[in-house]
Amino acid sequence: MKEKIAIKVDDLTVAYNFKPVLWDIDLSVPEGVLMAIVGPNGAGKSTLIKAMLDIIKPIAGSVEIFGKPYKKQYKEVAYVPQKGSVDWDFPTTALDVVMMGTYGSLGWIKRPGRQQKKEALEALEKVGMLEFRSRQISQLSGGQQQRIFLARALVQKASIYIMDEPFQGVDATTEKAIINILKELRKEGKTVVVVHHDLQTVPEYFDWVTFLNVKKIATGSVKDIFNDDNLTKTYGINYKVSVLQ
Amino acid sequence: MSVQEYFSLVFTDYTLRTITLGTAILGIVCGMLGSFAVLRKQSLLGDAISHAALPGIVIAFLITGAKNSNTLLVGALISGLIGTFWIKGIITKTHLKSDTALGLILSLFFGFGMLLLTFVQKMPNAQQAGLDKYLFGQAATLVESDVWLMGGVMLIALVVLVVFWKEFKLQHFDADYTKSLGFNTRFLDVVMTALIVLSIVIGLQTVGVVLMSAMLLAPAAAARQWTNNLAVMIFLAAVFGAFSGIFGTAISATSNNLSTGPVIVLIAAFFVVISFIFSPGRGLLFKQIRHWKNRNDLQLHKTLYFMYEIAKTHQDISHPHAVKILNNFQGYTKNSLKSLADREYITVDGAMWSLTPKGYEKAINLYNQQDNLND
What we know:
The complex is a heterodimer.
Chain A: E1 5-16, E2 19-30, E3 34-38, H1 45-52, E4 60-65, H2 70-73, E5 77-80, H3 94-99, H4 103-106, H5 114-126, H6 142-155, E6 160-164, H7 172-187, E7 191-195, H8 202-205, E8 208-213, E9 215-221, H9 222-225, H10 228-235, H11 241-244
Parallel strand pairs in A: 3-7, 3-8, 5-6, 6-7
Antiparallel strand pairs in A: 1-2, 1-4, 8-9
Chain B: H1 3-9, H2 14-39, H3 43-64, H4 69-93, H5 98-121, H6 133-136, H7 144-163, H8 165-173, H9 175-180, H10 185-204, H11 212-224, H12 230-254, H13 260-278, H14 284-311, E1 321-322, H15 334-342, E2 346-349, E3 352-355, H16 357-365
Antiparallel strand pairs in B: 1-3, 2-3
Helix pairs in contact in B: 2-7, 2-10, 2-11, 2-12, 3-4, 3-5, 3-10, 3-11, 4-5, 4-10, 7-10, 11-12, 11-13, 12-13, 14-15, 14-16
């Protein structure tokens, strides 16, 4: 049985301009699961993971990573933001972006050296992007950009990986490549949290799921809670899991 | 004085040397820091800050009653910083978007500054004459101590950029990720904004509040066109900035009554125009040429593929065919046959053409390889 808790969210409430985006969320993510966060647009999925990462300050509640606040545990966590959140016309190369994954362990001021470059190249190889290492990032396809972001997180060698819609706008090959890496991470005992949109693939890709729509609807193993009832509660319309599966 | 005379005098004449050095240093500082403002899509922040400095200049004069440039710049610095904090405050605390906040603060501070300026100019005191020079700047008023101050700011900016190079790069590419790695992005933000405010303040005397933002943006925008490397971009921006300063000073010194600030800004704008048209990777000219070439290639590929369709029905792929049978197909001209022959895809013999093995190979792979288009 999974006993250790990787991420613990307590009474978390987040609001933008007085409008609550997340309302009183309690959530425990056991170590070693591959968890999907699902919910309709505007359900607060991205906000939830940004609050976990201490990027957004909640108006109430707290988040603990392995029992301590994020500030003390940032080396344990790797974040893969939404691909669309950055300007891909930034003057830099694929390798350089992946090297950014080493900056956290380097800390302030210290520059990346040979060791960091080696790690970055290894990560690029893992995502199948080694031959594109010197490519200007604006000349990469959407799927390739996503893999670069994944490689950047892999370089961090964290225990927890938090990803915001890594499958958005990527082709089938990239999706397979990404999911294989996620499953490999789980095999290594890492915890992976993914904001996910494609309900059909939830049972195939993930073993843990959280239903979110401003409030937490349900959280647990896919086997136990991925059903009509929770889908309907989350999305407000009748979903038939039988059809999805 | 001709431009040649200017350049022979620039090393010996005290005034010319001071002004040229000052504008060059200003160009370097603005080029370096402007690169970050441009990459962050905060181009307008510089404009707002420089306009926000105006009331500070006038108030500093009202308080001290003297036109000492350093005290006036301290006033500019303070009111520029207040403007910046208000802008950031409006963005984080209200529903207003950043362009609204920038526009609001810019006009509010500038309006207030102009009001104070007209008030001061009506005062019965000869001292205030020339305060309006801060609107468009007057490089001729630069003295050696001003240049030392500019040099100091340049040194500070350089050291800070070198020390926090990795952090600034990371933050300007992906701020949220920077936070997730445990870096204090607020600190980085404050440092960068402070540097930008400083660079604007030291430029007010030379270029003035109205045109100052162009000094920040133009060299950086021009530099971005030539490179995909951040360090090279910043270096080029500094070079463009320095040359804008030097040439601008040279032109204004050699033609009577041409105000230095506007000339410098125009030179910088000239760099931008040249870069937008002629830079090889991103320039409009080469983009258009590539576009034509692609269209041309596409036509050729269509013709080649048509030939391949004919040739593949024969055992010998190089079996000659009459040019006439291409007539039904609109995509061929004498020129296109010649280009195909030049590329050794076909051989033309009088009124007959035949596909070469190379052309055959190319035609087969034409629609298999997506990469073809990128080559």
